[in-house]
Structures are given as C-alpha cells and as structure tokens.
User: What shape does this take?
Amino acid sequence: MSRSITTALILALAAAACSGGDGAPTTTTAATTTTTRPAPTTTSPPTSAVATPEPRSGPLIVWVDAAAVAGIEDAADDFAAFEVVVEAKSTDEIVAALTTRPASGPDVFLLPHDRMTLFLERGTLEPLGPVADSLAESVAATVTRRGIAYGAPLGLDAVVQVRNPALADAVADVTEFAAACTAEDEEDPGPGVCLALPAAGSGDIVYPFLVAGGGYVFGSNSVGEPVVDDLGVDSNSAIAGVSVLEEIIDAGTGTGVESVASTFAAGETAFAWVDAAGLATIAEVDFEFVVEALPQIDGLDAPTPLRSRSLFVNALGDNKVAAVALVVEHLATADIAGELGLFSPNDEVVTGAVAHPVPAVPEAATAWTELGHAMATLFGGQSASQALTNAEAALTGNEG
Assistant: This one.
C-alpha cells in the first residue's frame, strides 16, 4: 500500500472515530458459538469510548512472542506511513504492562484470545472493523463480542485426530475404534496401541465427550456469553458423554501414555488425538499419516475446543488509528502460525470441524485443569460419574 493510500485510510478511520456514535461495549464476555460457516459481514463497529486523537508520527510499537518478531516485521514492511518497531515480549510481560500502565504500553500486541475479556472490561481494546469477516465463524468468534471484532487471529490451537492408514481405516464414530484396530488374521498383530491418550489427562480431550450429548462446562446468557456460576460439569448429559470415554479406556481401546505425539511417531499406534504442538512433533515422522477432524461420539458431533492467538490494538494509545490500519491492512494476514507452533487461521481441518471457542474468562483455565484431572482418574478405574462429581466440587469449592 502506498503512503498516500495508507495515510488516507488512517485519516478516514480518525474521522469516523471522532464523529460520535454509541460506545463500544467494554464489559462483555466470550460467546461460545459452535459453527464453521463463514462469518457474516458486520457493519462498521461503533466508536470506542476513548476519544481518538488525530494520528501523529510514529513509531508504532508492536509487542509479540519472540518467534513472531521476524514475520511481523516482514508483514509491516509496506506500511509506509509510520515507522514500526517490533519487540519480543512474553504474554506475562504484555499483560503486566497493559494492566499497570496501559496508556504507555504498546500500540499493538499479541495475546491468547482468552485474555480478551480482561482488557475489554478495562477499555483497552480498539475495534478492528472487518478484520474477521473472511474467517470461519468459529475462528471469528474467538475475538468477537456482540458482532464487533477486537482481534486478528494469527494462529489457532485445537484437537485433531491423526491416523496411521497402514494400521487402521477411517472411522466415523469413536465406537468404531475397537473394530478398526482388530487384526484381520492371526499373522497380523494389529497396532500396538489403538488410540493413544494422555495418561495425565487433558481437558481438551474430555471436552468433546462432555458436550457431545448436551453437557456443558459453563451455562450461557441470552446473548451466548458464558455464565461462570452456572456449572454443568456433573450434569447427567455430561456424565453420559464422558462415560463413552470411560468405556473406551476400560476396554483397552484407549491407552494412557506419557506422550501421545511421541507414541504415535513410533509407528505402532493407529489413532491419536493431538493439539498443534503434538502435530508438529508427528510431522517429522517418515511414514504416511492422515490428519482428520474428530469422529462423532455415539452418533453426535464431537466439538473441538478452539483457541486463537491474536493481535489487538491498544485503545488508550495515542497511535490507535494508525495501529488499526497497520493490523487490518498488513498484519492480519501475516503467515506466522507455524512460527507460533499453531494451526493457520484458515487450516482446512480445524475450520472444517465443529469447534467451540474456549470461553474467554479466567475461570476457563481452572475448569479445563479440573477436567484433565477427571480424565486422569478414569485411567485409575474411577467412574465418569465420580470423576465429574469431584471436578464440579473442586470448581465450586464444595470438596468433601
């Protein structure tokens, strides 16, 4: 983009921001939309409650993970209107700076989407207009509140299935794992492991089973935002879903291992459920494997929990108008998901799957930890009912 076009865009954004209108909501929490259709086009977002000054000279300060610095610098090369300075900062450093001194923090910053609610409540995030319009709706939902996009996803994390086609055919449902792994004759030993699962437990693995039959972690209000006081971890539907996982483990179809990715990479495992980091490990193997969406669970869709790592603009910064132009016109399409160890925002397997954005509330991390603990106890012989009852008690503080 030429300097004249970029400058015109910035001035247009500044004029729109200064023209008045309703303030953007700053106290909403995450929606948990479950769909993979392209996101509907939204109208331009209402203006921020923070007054927008005329754009001034740079530099624009961008804080991102160290692994993302080079890619962001490359993407910003054509932004001729202002100098762009990209600095390596950890998530904790970014959160600390924006919490204690937001007005003197970076103009643009990269964070997990689950930190978004915190900064929306503080009025620290600037709307980004149509930045998410071309994304799958489940991806856009990680950074959208009530139709307004506040972030530009650069990478995704989700659970996918990997399969060794030399050891097993595709399955449509988890109830078909056992048959798919059964040796066809006495001379065929079959796979050493049918389905590799993390022995230490994982909330991301429990979640699809818990919600497939109608269970839920958090309830939601009339606009789809999570209600953290409404827990459904030990609901009858949740227990019924996780009981399917219990049966898979008890039958020996699902085997608890220390490292799912390393076990699959050894070449004797038919199926494994892994996240982006696990798939990166598997990608180095010298045999063919297939990456697939999760199969159904007892005839019902198995939604993967979805996370994004996204760029946000500081609404309290003097350069926010220019920062929005930088993100929307240049950085939003930066191809750095691999450097971040994540899936691309347009990954066909992830965006083609049923996906639930992980609620962007602090309580979600604790809930996922307890779900992981519940899964670990299944390997010790505990029932799904008892495991989830204990998880709910831990979350409500009602442990015996």
Residues 1-9, 11-55 have pLDDT under 50 and may be disordered. The CA atoms of residues 29 and 103 lie 23 Å apart.
